């Protein structure tokens, strides 16, 4: 019994290596209490104890992803620590795949997909080289971007083809426009067209007279501003080109004709004289009517409204005391209201882009030409009558105001027995050969049977205007135009 008790004591004193055996009370007392620690701290303490092992011996190996607790159990929730350990390890070669996609967010998995190509990629032009001379050998960068350059060259070639197509269309349109211009040049109604030889002869005569004629500058006549006269009239020659109406605007009018325009101008002459307005007011009003009808289609009912509104605009521009809107309503015998005239004023000015002052009436040119005959009263009065006759004839829409003044002065000189000398050519810038066609048209108008019924004839048949209309009509009936040549 004694030996058996000794063996029992020796066996109890030896440590036991059974894994599943419950720990002794002494061992439990030696263990530090972990009740005051959190879960993460408990796991750390347990892991440290497992690594050291009991008695300093190496513990039994456990499966990957599991660790032993202090009580001998297995902890499997250590994925975060292993991921942290893997993050510290160097990257593996590209050949081996890392199974980390299970923990990646959805956005990162979508980004791994191949990007889709846009529907229409915008080509980018290659930047021009900073060097002036090109390199002899292509650089590696240029070789790498060769594919991009080829695509850009394709885009550039398409653009070049499109531009060539546009240029071809433009050339065709230019050819059509040139043909239209040639057709306009070949217009039978263009009586201003002269043979080329006569044009060259007239230009040579003008240049010779300008070089030899001496202008007597009247420094003491401040009204003629002799120091600035040449520059002023040169500027007026540029302006009169910009305010010329279309001489064939009646071709696209649907309800009115040239005879209706003549009736309108004749009525405007009556209104102009009735309210004693300035001569320039009449010419500006007629120019506004013709320019407006050149760009807008007007019905027959509104034709008189266009005329009275144009006179209203011209009077506001030129007169010191212009008639009121109510007076213009009275002129039309209440045919149009005040609101209609004011609305018409806005439409005309907007259509013509408020271009009123650019027009220079023939009276400005007559004042300059009259210097050649020392401002003869009879010649000037007769020329004013002849110029107002041109307002009634649509064929003179082709003439510039400077030429209308020259034609009126030339025909007045002819009727009074004068000649067209160098002084008249110098101040008018027109030779006799250039003025004869217009003068012949005026004579044809004077001898018409119904000419005495127009208001301009009645106006200048009074003593105030030296009965210029009666004298001109009698002279035109007794003299043949063919004898002028």
UniProtKB/TrEMBL annotation:
Residue ranges occupied by any Cyclin C-terminal domain in the UniProt entry: 360-474
Which ranges carry the Cyclin-like domain?
266-350, 364-444
Which Gene3D superfamilies does this UniProt record tie to the protein? Cyclin-like
A Pfam short name:
Cyclin_C
Bias (Basic and acidic residues): 79-89
UniProt keyword terms in alphabetical order: Cell cycle, Cell division, Cyclin
Single GO molecular function:
cyclin-dependent protein serine/threonine kinase regulator activity
| Biased composition, class Low complexity, residue ranges | 1-10
Protein's GO biological process? cell division; mitotic cell cycle phase transition
Which residue ranges does the record annotate as region Disordered?
Answer: 1-44, 59-147
Residue spans of biased composition, Polar residues class: 22-35, 128-143
**Similarity comment: family membership:** Belongs to the cyclin family. Cyclin AB subfamily.
* Protein name stated in the entry: Cyclin
* Phylogenetic placement of the source organism: Eukaryota, Fungi, Dikarya, Basidiomycota, Agaricomycotina
């Amino acid at each position: 019994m004694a030996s058996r008790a000794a063996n029992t004591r020796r066996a109890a004193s030896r440590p036991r290596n059974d894994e599943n055996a419950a720990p002794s009370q002494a061992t439990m007392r030696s263990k530090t209490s972990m009740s005051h620690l959190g879960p993460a701290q408990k796991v750390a303490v347990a892991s440290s104890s497992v690594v050291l092992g009991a008695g300093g011996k190496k513990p039994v190996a456990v499966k990957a992803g599991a660790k032993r607790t202090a009580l001998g159990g297995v902890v499997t929730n250590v994925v975060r620590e292993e991921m942290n350990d893997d993050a510290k390890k160097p990257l593996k070669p590209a050949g081996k795949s890392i199974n980390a996609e299970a923990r990646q967010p959805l956005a990162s998995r979508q980004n791994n997909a191949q990007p889709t190509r846009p529907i229409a990629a915008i080509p980018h032009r290659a930047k021009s080289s900073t060097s002036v001379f090109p390199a002899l050998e292509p650089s590696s960068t240029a070789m790498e971007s060769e594919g991009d350059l080829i695509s850009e060259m394709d885009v550039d070639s398409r653009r070049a083809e499109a531009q060539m197509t546009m240029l071809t269309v433009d050339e065709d349109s230019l050819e059509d426009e040139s043909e239209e211009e040639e057709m306009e040049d070949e217009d039978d109604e263009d009586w201003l067209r002269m043979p080329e030889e006569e044009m060259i002869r007239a230009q040579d005569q003008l240049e010779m007279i300008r070089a030899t004629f001496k202008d007597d500058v009247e420094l003491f006549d401040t009204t003629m501003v002799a120091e600035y006269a040449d520059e002023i009239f040169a500027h007026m020659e540029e302006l009169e080109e910009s305010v010329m109406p279309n001489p064939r605007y009646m071709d696209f009018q649907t309800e009115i004709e040239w005879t209706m325009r003549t009736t309108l101008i004749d009525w405007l002459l009556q209104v102009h004289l009735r309210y004693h307005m300035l001569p320039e007011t009449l010419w500006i009003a007629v120019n506004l009517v013709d320019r407006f009808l050149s760009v807008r289609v007007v019905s027959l009912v509104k034709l008189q409204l266009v005329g009275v509104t144009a006179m209203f605009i011209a009077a506001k521009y030129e007169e010191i005391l212009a008639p009121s809107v109510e007076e213009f309503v009275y002129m039309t015998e209440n045919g149009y209201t005040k609101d209609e005239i004011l609305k018409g004023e806005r439409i005309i000015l907007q259509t013509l882009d408020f271009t009123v002052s650019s027009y220079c009436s023939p009276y400005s040119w007559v004042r300059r030409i009259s210097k050649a005959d020392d401002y003869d009263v009879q010649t000037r009065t007769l020329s004013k009558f002849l110029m107002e006759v041109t307002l009634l004839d649509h064929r003179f829409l082709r003439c510039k105001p400077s030429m209308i003044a020259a034609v009126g002065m030339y025909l007045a000189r002819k009727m009074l027995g004068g000649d067209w000398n160098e002084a008249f050519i110098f101040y008018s810038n027109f030779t006799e050969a250039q003025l004869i066609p217009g003068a012949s048209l005026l004579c044809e108008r004077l001898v018409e049977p119904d000419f005495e019924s127009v208001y301009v004839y009645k106006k200048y048949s009074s003593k105030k205007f030296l009965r210029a209309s009666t004298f001109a009509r009698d002279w035109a009936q007794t003299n043949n135009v063919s004898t002028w040549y």
